[in-house]
## 1
Amino acid sequence: MFKELDPLLHSQLRLAVVSLLLSVEEADFVFIREKTGSTAGNLSVQLDKLNEAGYIEVRKFIDGKKPRTVCKITKAGIAAFDAYVKVLQEYIKR
Amino acid sequence: MMETNFNEKESLRVINEMIAQAQNNFQKGVADPSIFSGYVVAFTAIANFLLLNLLENPILSFHVWWLMIPMVFVSRYIGRKNAIKAQVRTQLERLISTVWTAHLFACITILLVIWSGNRIFNTSYLSVLITPTILIFTGMAQFISAKAIRFKAYYYGSFAYWLGALGCMAVCSVNMWHYQFLILAACSILGLAVPGHILNKKAKEHV
């Protein structure tokens, strides 16, 4: 079941992150954590996986004295999400 | 949110939920540039109106409008500072920012067109069109912003601007053209500053 679905996106938190980033231009780590209701540790691991796959861009910088992490979806991420939704639609039609 | 195996219906639920979460995220202080610009324009318009009546050479009163140049820079600086601090930046915010940039260029262009017209036809009458035209442009930019963020107060603001534009011509018809500046001041407060305060309040409640 769900063999054709992108395994990287077929995870509740990673799919939530990509869906969220798809609707905004870029979002802060804190915003993503609050909206997905995940823990910082888990989110950090999943963001790394998405970043390694080239689905998102992660930018880390210092804002005043606070370190910040800002994420943005990439073209590859949008294409992967698009493909994921298409496969998902096929499953639903069955 | 836990990492669990989930089915296609749950996948759809997650996607819908996250897209809904991303909508209507007003950042704290999102309307600060509007509020600042609204008050500065109102102050400048009132100053122009007073100086027109006080100065021996009333033409000099129009120099108060040079204040608009630093106002644009300060307003942009406030917007940029808030954007850096913001937890999220949306495509809508970029669209709205582009609309207001277009508004700025449209205002500069209309000033050049009217000044050129005055010189070409050797008149100063065309100048009475400056304020109503700028009010119409501002109302349009505000209306697009209202539509983009689905914010009613901005809709009302845009209508305040358009009514103000008609009011400007009404005062001209009774030879009281200088009252245009008071109309401009009222529109800037009612159409820009007040809706800005309401939006900031809404953003504060949201955060």
## 2
Amino acid sequence: MPTSSVENPESSQKAPRPEAAKSTLPQPGRPVPSRAYPGALIVVEGTDGSGKSTQLYLLKRWLEIGGYRLHFTEWNSSPLVKSATRRGKQRRLLTPTTFSLLHAADFADRCERQIMPLLQGDYLVLADRYVYTAFARDAARGCPPRWLRNLYRFAPVPDITFYFRAPLDVAVHRILSGRPKLKYYEAGMDLGLSYDRSESFRLFQARILEEYDKMVDSDNFVVLDGTLPVNKLQKQMRDIVASKIDLKRFAPHAPEVE
Amino acid sequence: MPEQEKDKEKEKASAAPTATEQPVAPGQPAPATKVPAAEEEASQYFFGEPLVGFDPSEITGSLIVIEGMDGSGRSTQIALLQEWLESEGFAVQTSGLRRSNLVGRDIDQLLAKNAVTRLTLSLMYATDFFDQVEHRILPALRAGTVVLADRFIFTLIARGVVRGINRDYISGLYAMALRPHLTFWLNVRPETAFAREFKKAQAISYWEAGRDMSLSHDLYWSFIRYQTMIKREFEVMAKRHSFIELDGEASVSAVNKQLRQRIGERLGIRATKYAPSSALQHLWR
């Protein structure tokens, strides 16, 4: 039962998704349309400091409190690939190509072992950053866009992609004021844009923002204004989720008929 | 897409079969950046896309690839070729799978644990490959070195494809791989390879036998079936990428002679006579 403090997400009306064929498992490397499985995938994207993680956390809390079946997954978090990524970053071994491939390996591991099985098992999957992060960030590093698109071709297409858009200054200020020191790759120091880390970060983020903006239409981003107050933004997000996804399907028990 | 560009795409696809040809997901493909001249030049060096920051004018060395299944005699031949080339005054660099500083050991661990799925493993191998390209192979080629590669993208593509990974996908992954100057394929029958491998270690490893694919509970049949599948993939690629196919069943010295001839032509070495030093004598059977 959802508590009174949260809105009831079941109030909206939406036709349930047709039952997916359960026997046809996707072939790795082939695009996975969102109708190939019964679950649903919600993704947040945006530059560092756009507020996306806070918002996804609040969305997750809302759904958790409501008792929905969900799984939360974060970019760059697979334990299998972690040591390699850490070593590569510490020793600055990563080039744009290997940086990109390692993150793809990380994503593939989560995709094959969590995201796809859970979507097939009728879960609501929430992802903090998704393939669009790679498209934006790695393209900003100079990787060919066509190659990047192919690299992540195995990824299921999200049901909703929220793009939290904040002006460069706002986002950069949020990050710089809260962090003692930016890391080498985080600041995009490998691009040689500037010797000053903060300045490099700013230039790098500007490129990423530009790449994100290019995808708004082609990838059906739902654009949200990252400068709005947190609770207002969250209200918008919950409304959109409730209108686009048949949340009843993910409720713990089917509503009892009396 | 305008007609002209479409034609160019087609042309590229036939010239470099590894270029991505199909629409990609999620969403539409991002608009390709327009650098036609550079792209054309790059296709001579790469299968599809150029590596970030690559300058072709710097390449003065030769990239020579030896492919073939386990037990085909690759490493023996590479050891002999290295000695021969060094005696001829050429600097030699070698490369091979899982030898990168970045993820070589991580892959060893993943294989040992057998906790990894096929796609992740493929991508880890791709990372390992490109780390070696960028940190070992390219610097060597810039310095005029002869690079002897013990296996290359072809093995990685074959392994992925027989495990059900989409062929266009996995070849697209290697679109930024350097095109070798020469690619040799030491072709042997799986039965011969089995005997050689068994003799070497008195055992056949889990991965060599493709046991992750559940082909057979019988180790021998698992090995034979798996290596036959790989071999079929090689037959397809041999035509596409003009492999120089050598009979890996022939004696070490006979195979080596053929290798020396072709490499000698490429490097302008006229006399290709060679007999191994005492250190490598044991390989010469």
